[in-house]
Amino acid sequence: MAELGFNIPSLIAYLVNFLILLGVLFLFAYKPVLRALDARSDRIRESLEAADRAREEAATSRTAIEEQVNEARRQGQQMLDQAKEVADRYREEEMARARQEAQDFVNRARSDIQRERDAAVAEVRTNFGDLALTAAERIIRRSLDRQAHQELVAQVLEEGGSLPSGPGG
Questions:
Q1: How many other β-carbons are positioned within 10 Å of the β-carbon of residue 138?
Q2: 16 lies in a domain?
Q3: Of the candidates 11, 65, 74, 102, which lies 20 to 30 Å from 93 by C-alpha distance?
Q4: Are 122 and 149 in contact (CB under 8 A)?
């Protein structure tokens, strides 16, 4: 091999030096580098898993928030519907009360009119009795005593009660 330019003792020395260097590097450099690479690989894997979990949690949170928003909308709509029902019921109650008040007013007015009509009829009957008495006094030209006067008024009123009423009565 010397003819080819190889020096065997130097080659063996280089080979031994290379193997010693390889052994030292394997013991002191290769294992720590592999551990560092494995640790970095583990951190990257954990980061990716954490990112996936965060993404899933974000999706879950978004879904939960959307459900809460939808529930809030439903509750808001229910509250609006309830408020509308209450307002409708209140309006109907107020309308019924207004109708009742109007009916009560009409009834009071009718009873007032009837009372005034009865009072007017009583006054007319009283005046009619006085007029009949005056007419009878003038005809007879004499004055009646109180007892005769009462009897005559009662008789005229009985006859006046059987007469047909005027218009409206």
A1: 9
A2: yes
A3: 74
A4: no
pLDDT tens digits, residue range 52-103?
999 999 999 999 999 999 999 999 999 999 999 999 999 999 999 999 999 9
Pair 130, 156: CB distance under 8 Å: no
Count of domains in the chain? Answer: 1
Residues 169/141, Cβ–Cβ less than 8 Å: no
- Write the burial class of residue 109 (CB in 10 Å: 0-12 exposed, 13-18 middle, 19+ buried): exposed
Contact assessment for residue 168 and residue 162, using Cβ atoms and an 8 Å cutoff: no
Is the pTM higher than 0.70? The answer reads no
In a domain, 101, yes or no: yes
Residue 167 lies in a domain: no
The label of the residue with tokens 């990112």 reads 51
